[in-house]
């Protein structure tokens, strides 16, 4: 019997496994994610990844994901009491023979989202309870390099599910919004502005913002190396991440937005200054130039900013408003929740393990920073 080794809080891994492969899972729930990395054989006819109620497919199969390269289709299904259910067929096969692949299975309360090479390819709705899953079983014409499991508990899913937003304070509003108002939507239709703080957006109340360096005019204040909570640190703030970043690592940032705030940012950086690479730059623009209520996400490598991401389901920040931001590290992405609601997921463009500091800058007062 194969086993998944625990490598961090809520993170399990097994490397260089033989196929067929069966492994007992520690328990799945909404928020769990399984990653399978491998390579198809040069004669690959097909393979399958199965979420089973027992060690193999002789038991009930809660979710059967079956790329059939020879037939040119991908079949998703379940099996109950020896009988297969109705097939869900995708005509596009995102795999080729003799090629490396990565498949991620994201589990929500609605079903399984399948992501291949960072592109969503299928959603399979639950037909059997997720609690029935006890084993992962992989078979077919492939070799498997790595299997990883991130449990939902590492992001607090036992208390809430960020993929199904829960009511917040003020009768369902995100905490920090003015009382009686509705959350403001991010600028879905806006065109990305050229990135770089030396060229801020034009216009806005009171004229054009003056160009300014990213550091907002002052060097960051450094935090201690311990893993305990850091209370009321000054801003700009920089803190070393105890133990570094690994899947399952969590960072909690709480604070209050300044009364006349234009913007602030939370950054995951490869060093203790803004001159290092940014694994994630989360730039909250409340009233910056012509931009209102936008959360810009990007990275910086070798001094060059990457492409921006701007879409978000809600905007949880407001002048004088409190906020609680939760950051969860996964192997290939960073998940961010605000006030107990999932906000966005940022797919990493450089290795997670290179990140070792968190920087907070801008128009905000911090009340606590904590690592877990």
From TrEMBL:
Gene3D superfamilies: 2.60.120.200. It comes from the Eukaryota. Residues 166-231 are annotated as: Disordered. The keyword Repeat applies. One of its GO terms (molecular function) is carbohydrate binding. Residues 20-150, 237-372 form the Galectin domain. InterPro entries: ConA-like_dom_sf (IPR013320), Galectin-like (IPR044156), Galectin_CRD (IPR001079). Keywords: Lectin, Repeat. It holds the Pfam family Gal-bind_lectin. Residues 175-202, 213-222 have a biased composition (Low complexity). PANTHER family: 32 KDA BETA-GALACTOSIDE-BINDING LECTIN LEC-3, GALECTIN. This is Galectin.
């Amino acid at each position: 019997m194969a086993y998944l080794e625990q490598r961090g809080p809520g993170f399990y891994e097994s490397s260089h496994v033989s196929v067929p492969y069966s492994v007992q899972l520690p328990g799945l729930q909404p928020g769990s994610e399984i990653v399978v990395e491998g390579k198809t054989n040069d004669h690959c006819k097909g393979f399958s990844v199965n979420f089973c109620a027992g060690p193999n497919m002789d038991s009930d199969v809660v979710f059967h994901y079956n790329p059939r390269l020879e037939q040119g289709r991908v079949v998703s299904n379940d099996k109950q009491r020896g009988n297969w259910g109705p097939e869900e067929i995708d005509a596009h096969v995102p795999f080729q023979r003799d090629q490396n692949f990565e498949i991620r299975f994201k589990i929500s309360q609605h079903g399984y989202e399948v992501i291949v090479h960072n592109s969503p390819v299928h959603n399979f709705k639950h037909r059997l309870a997720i609690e029935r899953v006890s084993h992962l079983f992989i078979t077919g014409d492939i070799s498997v390099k790595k299997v990883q499991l991130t449990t939902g508990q590492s992001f607090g899913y036992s208390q809430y599910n960020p993929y199904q937003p829960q009511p917040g304070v003020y009768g369902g509003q995100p905490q920090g919004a003015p009382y009686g108002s509705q959350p403001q939507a991010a600028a879905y239709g806006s065109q990305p502005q050229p990135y770089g703080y030396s060229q801020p957006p034009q216009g806005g109340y009171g004229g054009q913002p003056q160009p300014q360096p990213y550091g907002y005019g002052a060097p960051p204040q450094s935090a201690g190396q311990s893993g305990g909570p850091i209370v009321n640190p000054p801003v700009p703030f920089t803190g070393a991440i105890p133990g570094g970043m690994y899947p399952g690592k969590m960072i909690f940032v709480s604070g209050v937005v300044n009364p006349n705030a234009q913007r602030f940012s939370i950054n995951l950086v490869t060093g203790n200054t803004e001159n290092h690479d940014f694994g994630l730059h989360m730039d909250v623009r409340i009233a910056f130039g012509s931009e209102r209520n936008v959360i810009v996400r990007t990275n910086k490598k070798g001094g060059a900013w990457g492409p921006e991401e701007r879409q978000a389901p809600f905007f949880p920040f407001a002048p004088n408003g409190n906020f609680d931001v939760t950051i969860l590290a996964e192997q290939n992405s960073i998940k961010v929740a605000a006030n107990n609601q999932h906000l966005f997921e940022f797919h990493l463009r450089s290795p997670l393990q290179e990140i070792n500091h968190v920087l907070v800058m801008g128009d905000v007062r911090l009340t606590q920073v904590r690592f877990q």
